Structure formats: C-alpha cells, structure tokens
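User: Hi! I'm working on a homework problem where we have to compare a predicted structure to a textbook description. Could you give me the structure for the chain below?
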Amino acid sequence: MTKLFRSSPILLILTTFLLAGNVRWEANYHGFLDNREYYNSVQTPKTYIGSDFMTTAFFQITPSHEIAFGLDYIYELGGRFDDHPLKTVMNYRYNREPFYFQVGVFPRRDLLHYPLALLTDTLDYFRPNIEGFYVNYSGKRISENFWLDWMSCQSEHTREIFMTGFSGNLTIGQFSLSHYTVVNHFALSSPSPADEHIRDNVAALLKIGWQNGNAGFLDTLQISSGVLMSADRSRHVSDWYSARGWYSEIMVSHGRFAFAGTFYLGERQKILFGDRFFGAKSYARTDLIVHVIRIPTVQTDCSLGLHFIEGKIDFSQTLTVRADFSR
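Assistant: Happy to help. Predicted structure tokens:
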C-alpha cells in the first residue's frame, strides 16, 4: 500500500500527459529464462527467470524535443514482489540527425551494443535502464557515442558507483573498425570503514571487421577480430593489474536460424561488469539461435550456448520474449 501511495504522483503525471495533445504511449514486456550449467573456476551455475514490464508516456514538445514519464517493474519468478523495487522512468530526449541525446532514466535497449566481454547480459535482465545520459552522433560512415550510468549514490551503507563508456564504428565498404571502452569506478561510502578502498576498472576492445549482407545462401556473414584489454586497481592497496588478449567473433544467419561464435586467447581479464568467462586464459563460445517468432510487435528467441573452457564444455539455454505495443 505504501508503494502504491508513493507512486500515485507519478501515475497522476502520466494521466495528465495522456490526456494532453501530442502524446504517444508505449508498453514493453521482456521475459527471460537463462539456465546456466557452468562448472569451471570463473563462473557459477545459476538460473535466471523473470519478467520486466515498462509503460511510458512520451510528450512531444517540438519535433526534435521530447520528455517521457513511466514506470518499470521487474519480477523474478519464485521471488517476492518487493525483491525488486518499482522504478521510475523519466527522461528528456533530443533527436535531430545526426545527433541524438538523452538524459534521465531511460532504457539501455537499442542504445548500447557492447560485446559480453565488457557488459554482461544480466545487466539487460536486472538493470534495463541507464540512469545518466547518452549522446550519439551518426554520420554516413562514422558513428560515435558517449554515456554515463550512475549506479549507486553515496551513503553510510552504500558506495558511490558509476559506469561510463564510449564506442564507435568506422565503415568503409564491407569493412569496419570498431572500438568499445568501459570505465567502472567504485568510490567510498560516507563515512567509510578503514578496509574500504576506491577501485578503478577500465576495459577496452578494438577490432576490425568484415560483413556481407548476401553471402551465397546466407542472409548475413560477419567476421571480426581484435585486441581485448583491461586494467584494475584498488587505490593504496595494489598496483594496476593489466591484461590483454586476442578476441574474435563470427555471426552467420539464414532465415530464422543464426550461429554466433566467440574466441578469446590471452591473459586473465578483470572486467567488473563483463562476462566472467573472460577471466580464463582461453575461452570459446558458440550459440545456436532460433528466431521462433519475428513479427513487428513480438520477438521470441531460443538459443543453446556451448562454452569451451578449461578443457571442458559447459552449457546454457536461453528463451527470451519481447513484446512492444504503442499508440
């Protein structure tokens, strides 16, 4: 009852804007089942199953300026209603080619397309929104973006945590040069205990790629390869730990079927919000994907993941459903 009372002003704002002119409304559902059968030294077996529902009203000020208000709730099946709090979505958007800008609380979906080595997929499950800003430039051959996600405010019991990054792509014919960078910063709580230290963590990936949109019977064929790097330290406790290695990807698709492969060989990476598999010296992954439903309003995907690590094969199975409605 208290939570409903606290959210009533937000609902009032939403109702007011819905009754006004120049308003559009969206509802988005994301369901996920991710079963991970991991038995190695860098990962632990776990099953994630849940649903995320978001409803948002967009009020257009001018053709290029827009503000949005909404609510987002995540329910993890088998849990309690209050395990994940009801979140507020509230942001301002500016969209005029070649620039796009958002500030406030807004979905990361369709904005950040980072490899799992830098940003793991559980962020999409349990932190679907960015709380900060995002700016993007998209030209004919060059695209660049910069963003900040403020993950935790400083208090007596919590540390100040933020994540920021930038990525971009240069395309020349069928070839591309891409870069991705993430900076993670853990500051102190206030007051902070003596054994708490500021932590800095940086990771970057630079790769060259080639793609063909019509390679024989394939709908798409994408190949890329490059260098994955990271650096990590706890201030006044340890020096910088750095690691680098060779990173490669391949993606092919035909109709409803797709195959994705990833290979890493090098030093053990320490990337705080990246996939922990890259904490191994050698790691290979293949994903067999079936696009079960592909219509404008609903997308359903099933995949089987094979993880080759430490001389063993681990498995993962995923089912994701996305449904989008707007008016």
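For your comparison, note the following. The helical segments are 2-19, 122-126. Residues 2-326 form a domain with the Porin fold (CATH 2.40.160.10). Good luck with the assignment!
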